[in-house]
Amino acid sequence: MASPFTIPHNLVDLEEEPEDDRLFVRNLIQTQNLTPSGLDELVKGVVFDLSDKDVFCIEEQEVFDQVYSLVKGFGHLEASARANLIESLRSNFSVLLPNIASLSRTPVSPHEAQAEAEPSPHERVASHRNALKIYTFFLQTILLSGDSGSGNAPKGTQSKSKKHSVQTWNWEVHRGRITHLLASALETDLKPLYGMSDPEENYISFVVKSAFSMFENNTLLKDPETKDALCRIIGACGTKYHYTMQTAASILHLIHKHDYLPQHMADLVAWAEKKYRDGSLALALITEIGRMNTKDFTRDTAGADNVGRFLVELSDRLPKLVSTNIGILVPHFGGESYKIRNALVGVFGKLIAKAFKDVEGDSAAKAHRLRGKQAMLEILLERCRDVSAYTRSRVLQVWAELCEERAVSIGLWNEVTEIAAGRLEDKSAFVRKSALNLLITMLQYNPFGPQLRTSSFEGTLEKYKQKLQEMAPAEHSEESGQGEVIDESTAHEDDGDVDSKLSNGGNGSINQIDSQSQDIGGESCSFSVHNGVSIEGPLGIANLEQTRALVASLEAGLRFAKCLSSTMPTLVQLLASSTATDVEHTILLLMRCRQFQIDGAEACLRKMLPLVFSQDKSIYDAVEGAFITIYVQKSATEAAANLLHLAIDSNIGDLAALEFIVSTLVAKGDISASVISALWDFFCFNVSGVTAEQSRGALSVLCMAAKTSTKILGSHLQDIIDIGFGRWAKVEPLLARTTCIALERLPDEDKQKLVSSCGNGSRVFSILQTLINGYWLPDHIWYSAVEKAISTIYIVHPTPEVLAAEVVRQVQNALFGCIAGEKESSDLDGDGANGGNFISAVQVSTLSRYFFVVGHVALNHLVYIETCVKKIQKQKTKKERSLPEDVQSGGMGAPLQVAAQDNNINAELGINASDDAKLDSLSEKAEKEIVSGNNAGKNLIGLCAPVLTKLCRNFSLVQKFPELHASGMLGLCKLMVIDANFCEANLQLLFTVAESAPTEAVRSNCTIALGDLAVRFPNLLEPWTEKMYGRLRDPIVSVRKNAVLVLSHLILNDMMKVKGYINEMALCLEDMDERIANLAKLFFNELSKKGSNPIYNLLPDILSRLSNDNLEEQTFCNIMQYLIGLIKKDKQMEGLVEKLCNRFCGVTDIKQWEGIAYCLSQLAFTEKGMKKLIESFKSYEHALSEDSVVEHFRNIISKAKKFSKPELRSCIEEFEEKLNMFHMEKKEQEMTTKNALFHQQKLEKFGNHTARSEGFQGEEEEENASRGTGEVIDPHEEMIPSIRKSEVGNKELEESSNISSEMECSETGNLEFQSPQVSQRRPSKTKRNVGMGMQEKEKARSSTIRRTKSTKGLVDFVFILLVYVPMRGVESFLGRDWRGEVLNNFLCLNILFKSISFSHIWPED
């Protein structure tokens, strides 16, 4: 019988001779010293022995030593030798395994064994056990050696003739065979070898340890066969052989260590449970995770993440097992690690979706499991309010997954919807994203139907409620009245009832009722009764229950639709979010809401149009994709109808956005030619039922498309003129204005055709003149139409100045009847009465229109001059560029070449620059002549300018005619934009009107005009900067909004420097109007992106100015918090620390101290910034007396401790101690000063009173003598009332000096200071007055009455006795260490009275 084999800890341990008779290596062969031929012969000999002898030959000492030597030197073997050795060991081991199983089937009796000289059964078992362990040990060692990379032969041993054999070595194949063989060995029944006990622990431990070491190689796990074998090995050891706790510990260790293992370990545990029908390994893992300290997960975030993913994967594979033991993990919800909470939320989601599908067992077991499911759902609802945003987001994601799995009941559907709607306002962006995705999923998988209009649900619900009342039994109806009717409030109170009613009606989801659909309200979703039983059929319990279920479903659906409709205002806000994901997912949700016809979704989608101007490409792509999906990806007619309705219903801002996106889509080809053709059909009334408004909308969209493709309009020029200026223009007045826009956007060749055409050209311009001079358009449309008509004249007409002059002359003649300009001025030179008479002779509307035409013609003429100058410059540049090319090519004649050379010489000498100067001079002169005229005199517009000026200065007149005032100021502003001198002369008038005009329209127009003037004449407007910022304080919202827009435009485009009045814009951050506040936030956000963030330099000045304003504390904090949040760079944050600390030095106002301290507390401190704060302590130490200032510094310290390193933490703690110490010292100094001032006032009043009381001293002494010696009466109590009267005015000082007293109102109504422990007569005072007898007190009183300068210290003490003691109470005064208290008060007084001496009052001790 061979020696027993024990698996060693290490391979080389077999070379050591053991104390017992176990098998070990006696003759080690050093394979590295053998020649290749010798090594090959050794391998062949071992292979021959293993194949020729039986499988137990491995126990023989010689074979064992040789195999050990080859295994130890496995890395030095050639590929063929390795393969032969592995195959020999593997084949013998595979033969051994069936023999082990046959031990129990072929028992050998002792007599037969003795007769045949065969080993006994015990010896056979021992040999099989030995062989099993030896083969397992050697194969496992080879496996580990090969995976560690030692399987490659060293380069020195590779010969050229054997390179081919090395290259053909395929270790993966051999590794898979070995692992499968080892797994089969463990799965073999080993009871014949070990009986009822498990194999030795060191054997199982060796196998498990080796398998786990292979799990640490991620490459191995990519091979499915190897992974499967390793799972079989560990699963068998951990489950079959009860090596559970150790296996679970190893699994958790590896999960903590490697982030790729959670899924593989979950597969392992699930395989073990499925193979052996034993969940002990999974239960051990769950128990071990439940026992873990929650703080460990906080420290090891990576490990927490891995453990969490393992739990989720395990729940997905073993939902029922995990659900029965989930209580072990629930306490981790109270831990600090959000990753574990996230994982538990995911676990709950998997369990709810999978663990409760088939509830088996009796009714009690079913009820128990359903209660468990309900508890999980409640926990998921609670976790929606988790403190961590990551967990809140994960919960919402889990709810979305449950909706996709249809695992959310109808009764719980609305509660989840309301929670998701509430999370739309979460402060975290990814929580909002998850909430939006959840709502999208809930709409997609909603159980209420494809159309969710509230009106349809309400009508249908009312109808079926009435049917339910009719179907209810009569007797039951008498008893319970409306008890059978399930109203909406009942459904809201207990959503669980909905599920029960649906289940009673044989319905789990409303979509399952559609076997025989019945329309319930027009286009809304169809509801019908299960199994096709008609509600109108015979009365029965089934019908009644089904109707109840249907009513309950309708109520739930109505609540769902209302909840989604109520989120529309929040979704509009999210469209304006600065976070791209908010905007993208909000658009997706709105698209889904529109698909299901949620109320308000269509209007909200319109508000996404301005987002096409977003600089974020993802937002633009989302808007463009939504626009194409909703409006364009239809049939041509439907797409054209969608676009024209958008154009009709949009405001000015939306029209600009619509124009941008339509022109872009036309350029890309997304709006096809068929859609354009359909739009022409709508415009030309070729579609039946088209209105004039729709025709105008179609032309508007065509004008937008023409911005990119101008040929669109040229093909229908005649239709544009006939329809746009024909009879339909009177039906739809805006059609004429749209037609003018179409004429402006004609291509150049079509414009030339229009002008050259005698019929159309003269007709068009005649119509435009009629449009300007006529009165057939309403007033509110005439101004916008004439504005476009004048612009069209200047764009299309070849000589627009001639036609414009004719237009102005016609308007002027119609108004004034050829009155001379001087006569016009004289009529308005008089007072308001004369002006009123003049205005009464002329219609106000006609005069207003005249001023508007003059102003707009002047402005267009200025633009026309600039356009001509640019054309000349462009032609000149083009000519200069073409000359050098012709010279180089030699295409010019000699004279032209000489001219080109002369031009080059002139350019070098700067002579060409004079041509540009001449052009600029001519342009300037032409611009000036518009208003000021030339030497010959004033022109038509110049004659009107004085009239406008005098009219606008006549305030009494314009107050009578607001419409005239608005038109006159608008014309004046346009003339001011043209001429600098005219602007300077009327600038003060403009600001006066902008501030004091009675109508908001005039103030708004003036504010907008100021922006244009600031661009045109920045030097003139620079001194008026403060007045421009003053428009931000206008009481009217529209004026403030325009002021914000104008200033934002000027500052962001570098047309105005950010002056010291930027605090006015900062105040708009907290404006009552939300739009103004959002515009201000947008301004500062854009300003922070310019250069190196100008807000960094502006912040201290803004802080100073806001501190001087009487702002509410919350308003100030909100403004500064937003501005500081725009500073992102650490270097700027550190610089702000230094700047703000330095501002403490020159500030004495407490309010400013608090503001600076608050700003410091809002900074994101770095280590360097914290050091600067500590170093600047002397700058702000004087402000530490204020509690609010110190509190802000404490907030800074608490935040700094979270990120500080150990060395910085000690500095912070030292700084905190220093801060607290200085705070207490400053508070004490402040209190001492207050007490000193208080006592000084008391002394002054007491001295006055003492002089008045000397005359009454004799009477008091006689009275005291008459009262006897048994009582001691304080003679100064009579003085107290008079002192009290003077003390009433100093009540605040008494409170601040810690002198407590009670105020009472006597019967006469006078206020008195009462000391409840002091009576009028105090017989006990003599006994308790330690160290002071009657005579000493009498001396003190007499010396007080006769006090002089030399006895001033004693007077101070008497003052304490007479004033302080009665107020505090003698008992409370003498019951403590009265000398110490008096000393404290004298120390306070010592600031004012330096001469007090205490030696005569009490001993030195």
From TrEMBL:
One of the Pfam families matching this protein, by short name: Cnd1
Domain of life: Eukaryota
Gene3D superfamilies to which the protein is assigned, alphabetical: Leucine-rich Repeat Variant (1.25.10.10)
Subcellular location: Chromosome; Nucleus
GO cellular component terms, semicolon-separated: condensed chromosome, centromeric region; condensin complex; nucleus
Keywords associated with the record: Cell cycle, Cell division, Chromosome, DNA condensation, Mitosis, Nucleus
Main location, first listed in the record: nucleus
Any one Gene Ontology molecular-function term assigned to this protein's record: histone binding
Stretches assigned to the Condensin complex subunit 1 C-terminal domain: 1002-1161
Keyword Metal-binding appears in the UniProt entry: no
Comp. bias intervals (Polar residues): 1300-1321
Keyword Cell division belongs to the record: yes
InterPro entries tied to this protein: ARM-like, ARM-type_fold, CND1/NCAPD3, Cnd1_C, Condensin_cplx_su1, Condensin_cplx_su1_N
BP GO terms, sorted: cell division; meiotic chromosome condensation; mitotic chromosome condensation
Disordered: region residues: 489-509, 1248-1271, 1300-1346
Domain (Condensin complex subunit 1 N-terminal): residue spans on this chain: 80-246
Function: Regulatory subunit of the condensin complex, a complex required for conversion of interphase chromatin into mitotic-like condense chromosomes. The condensin complex probably introduces positive supercoils into relaxed DNA in the presence of type I topoisomerases and converts nicked DNA into positive knotted forms in the presence of type II topoisomerases.
Protein family (similarity comment): Belongs to the CND1 (condensin subunit 1) family.
Protein name: Condensin-1 complex subunit CAP-D2
